[in-house]
Amino acid sequence: MLSSKLPDVGVSIFSRMTLLAQQTGALNLAQGFPDYDPPLVLREALARHALASGSHQYAPMPGLPRLRAAIAAQVSRLQPDAPAPDPDTEVTITAGATEALYGVLAAVVRPGDEVIILEPAYDLYGPAVRLQGGVPRYVRLPAPQFRPDWDEVRKALSPRTRLIMVNSPHNPSGAVFGAADWEALAALTEGTDILVLSDEVYEHLVFDGVLPGSARRHPGLRARSFVLSSFGKTYHATGWKVGYCLAPPALSAELRRVHQFVTFAVSTPTQHALADVLEADPTDAHARGLAGFYQAKRDEFAARLADTGWGLLPVPGGYFQLASYAALSTLPDLAFAEELARQWGVAVVPVSAFYHDGYNAGLVRFCFAKGPAMLHLAGERLARPPLVPGQ
Fold first, then answer.
1. What is the band of 7 on the pLDDT scale with cuts at 50, 70, 90?
2. 234-246 burial by CB neighbour count: b if 16+ within 10 A, else e?
3. Whether 266 and 323 share a structural domain
4. Would the pTM of this model clear 0.85, i.e. be above it?
């Protein structure tokens, strides 16, 4: 008889709510993906390389040298206060940030090691730790700001703490670490062997004129941090599944030991296409323009839900909106999300799915990475009274 390693884990809430959207015809504001295409220049680059000879065999295991060099150059331009990463030893191309995250955990977490997870957290974090024999130690982020209480994080540390996982901008809340947060994290880990996994896939989506931070930009964190990024988020191409990890040479070497036996190499024509667009954008206009692009969507979505009974929480970054539905229903969040899809025609994610214990904060998550027509129609549906109020 097979004994499951994850007996309590079923189909992800994202797949579940997307399926419900398909079954009911609801607008899918649940799963975090745009409903518009990547930039035309990127699609054209992929078409060229998909047809070109010489682009159809394995890429080097760490990634195409030209793509790693282009990433290093961009990081150097966007983070002038930090040393440029060495493209040969500090940049690794992965099959999305998901593979990078799993690879880091597989590389450094041993049975019995403890990993600090700040929640609500992306639902991959805990299971991926457990699959390595690690022990998740959860610290709750206080609502509505969802910024860490670093005293609570300190209390969770033990001699067995191997890694602290952080995520800024944060999924699901959009919270963004400030300088004081990076300082606090550095102070907690100073003089220890604790490593940091910094999930920065929404790195360019920081709003209201705030400059993006990074674990790489803090001298006390740089030597102990794996920093994850995602081309899927940056170029509206989540289905391409290309990400990368920036880490010091010794840490990158450990990640690559795992990566070579999991994926080995990411799609060669896709890597060439991404290198093309990075090399052709020396001012990083695309990356620098994302904050304004998504801030406009945030503001449009919020304006459509003003004075409708939805309690919108602040969104400093990312492309998700958390909302309280306390004025609309007394149902638990999962039941309310199902009601919302069936009766209002909008699919969302209940925030309890981001807690290991299913904690119900009475919040749901909307994805506003959608085109104008979708946001307009969603706003109309969400502004009307529920057809069958949950009580």
1. confident
2. bbbbbebbbbbbb
3. no
4. yes
